[in-house]
What does this fold into?
Amino acid sequence: AHIADAIAAFLMATDQAQPPLSDEESPKEPKKPEPPFYRLILQAADTHNIEPALIRAVILAESNYNPKAVSKRGARGLMQLMPRTAAALGVENLFDPAENINGGVKYLRQLLDRFDNDVRLALAAYNAGSRHVRNYNGVPPFRATRLYIKKVFKYKDIFQQEMSASRQTV
It folds into this structure.
């Protein structure tokens, strides 16, 4: 018992003798890795004035972050651009993440401008085409389009929370 008391006293004395750790010395949580393509997303968000969380949500909904994704209808890359749309946007290589993200975000910005910054209508047009949004004077009654919009908003909310939490810990 005397040895245990001596060890406890020694530990208390050495704890008190140590100066408190400065912020630089304090153990930090390991840094979380950046989300995939994050720097490209931030760059496109800044260039086209679109919230990064929305871009991340569209990429997740469209391609699940697979830069080589090809849909049944022929949409390609991270943001699932159709070849004709991509060409009109100046995208030469649909499978190049930087070109695809920038082109997809540029297209999303055009849709937001066309639909008075109504994100729901812009997403409906991104998914189903602008003509359907115009013809139906709103979100078309297509189940896939309505589910797509819900999914993108859900992902966007998650990414916004994640990004705001990471800003608070910095």
Remarks:
- The longest helix spans residues 143-169.
- Residues 43 and 85 are 21 Å apart (CA to CA).
- The two ends are 46 Å apart (CA to CA).
- The mean pLDDT is 88.
